[in-house]
Amino acid sequence: MKNKNYHYLSYRVFYMILALLTFIGCLLLILTVIAISENKFFFILMIGYLLFFAAFYKGYRWICLPYKETSKVLRLFAKGYTLQGIYELRFSFCPEMEDAIKKIKTIFNTNELISATKKQAQYLALQNQINPHFLYNSLEGIRGEAIAAGLNSVAEMAEALGNFFRYTISNVENLVTLEDELMNIENYYFIQEYRFGERLNLSIEYDCEDRAEVLKYRLPKLTLQPIVENSIFHGIERKIGKGNVRIKIQATPKRLIITVSDDGLGMKEERLRELNEKLNIQSFDYVKPDGEKKAGIAIINVNNRIKLLYGEKYGINIYSTVDVGTDVEITLPRIIEEGKEL
Fold it and tell me: Which of 141, 145, 218, 275 allows an S-S link to 175, with CB 3.0 to 4.6 Å?
């Protein structure tokens, strides 16, 4: 069977260099035997060995190490594990490759990708093409009629829905404060209470010294709601009895860590591993139109937005145990003003 490695020029160059080194090594060995048998040429032979090892060491530092570094970055980029790495590539195989990478940078423009995810988030937040103003006006009309009829619970529900959709649909591109995100979560919980009643409980905990300062930290809009939604509908809804969703907020010197936990059904180890693998890989499939995935804003989308905005060291990790519950950990930079990390 023909070796497929010969298809790649890098392997051809490697084999040629290996053959050349082998030839020179054999030549030096022959010269060594001759020098020993005739008891001369030792100085020339020593110079030859020094030149050989110096060239080998220089080639290793100049060619082998940069090649391994470049290959690793390209391999990780191809698998989706790194996006920033392709921008910071230090060595290119040839000028044409450098031009090709510049073209890739242009194609994968980070701002355009972020814009695409925002548009999708806005579209997925409302699953049909209802004019937002028409929606707000309709809900306000329902609220007014409910108040006139003495149906206070209906009026409160309409008001909560109006506030929720107004926050969700409008200005998706902006960063918001943690306080705004949590207010939206409380609105969302208020709406869900009408469905679940006493079966559902939401709590927010702060594991930090200055709560007022932490509430001013900024994060992408609609970071928390999709995760709380998943906790309710995939963890709590199918559970018998009461269910609890807890949002825990922690602050380290450089990071804001938000953990959304539920005591629902949890998930199997295989499913958990599959989800975390998807979260570790930056996939651009979400940019493409997809007629099948319109049921809510996916955690994958939230994770990709975080990584595109702040880098690969931030994002989402999931921990889960069957019949115990699920923890979704969101890691963000501490940002007090848009574009400025602490």
Answer: 218
Over the stretch 87-123, which tens digit does the pLDDT of each residue have? 666 766 667 667 766 766 665 555 555 555 555 555 4
Closest CA to 176 of 216, 211, 139, 214: 216
Considering the domain architecture, whether residues 124 and 197 belong to the same structural domain is answered as yes
- Tokens of residue 57, six digits: 């060491």
Ordered DSSP codes for 51-82: HHHHHHHHHIIIIIHHHHHHHHHHHHHHHTS-
Q: What is the pLDDT of residues 32-45, one digit of tens each?
A: 877 777 777 677 77
pTM reported for the whole predicted model: 0.60
> Domain tally for the chain?
2
How many angstroms separate the CA atoms of 121 and 143, rounded? 27
DSSP 92-116: -SSHHHHHHHHHHHHHT-HHHHHHH
Beta bridge partners of 315: 331
